């Protein structure tokens, strides 16, 4: 995310709590994240994807669990998606599909693959995502 100049840069950039009980927490404003879009941030040195689907927000590291292949965003309108596809992710190594919540779609990819993994998180007041602390 590239912060805007002036005061908007301070309000749109993720904030971190480096000390105290919330060590490693990050707060990310999501008011400008449109449905069926992804934002990538870095959390604890790793990429973290925030996806706003039509039914909520999913937070995960964008790598599948067997070979570590990076997933790609597969919007609801992408050609060649299954009937009823409402948006999610695909990966090129095994051909797995993951729904908008990061859950592997049964019958796709390799049976050893799990769901996409992410840190504990919750939404707070003001359409902000808090990563690194359970709700």
Number of strands: 10
What's the number of helices?
1
* N→C terminal distance: 25 Å
Uncertain stretches of 5 or more adjacent residues = 1-13, 16-22
Whole-number mean pLDDT: 82
Order of helical and strand elements: HEEEEEEEEEE
Please tell me the total number of domains.
Answer: 2
Strand content: 25-35%
**In what order do the strands lie side by side in the largest sheet?**
1-2-10-9
For the biggest sheet, the summary is: 4 strands, antiparallel
What can you tell me about this protein's structure?
By secondary structure, the chain is mainly beta. The protein has two domains: 1-61 and 121-135, no CATH class; 66-117, no CATH class. Helices cover 4% and strands 33% of the residues. The chain has one helix and ten strands, in the order αββββββββββ. The strands form three sheets. A four-stranded antiparallel beta sheet has the order 1-2-10-9, with no helix packed on it. A three-stranded antiparallel beta sheet has the order 3-4-5, with no helix packed on it. The protein is globular. The two termini are 25 Å apart.
Chain-wise SSE layout:
Blueprint lengths: L6 H6 L2 E3 L7 E5 L7 E7 L2 E8 L2 E5 L11 E3 L13 E3 L6 E3 L21 E4 L3 E4 L4
Outline of the structure:
The chain is mainly beta and 135 residues long. It has 1 helix and 10 strands.
What are the main properties of this structure?
135 residues; 33% strand; mainly beta; disordered N terminus; three-stranded antiparallel sheet
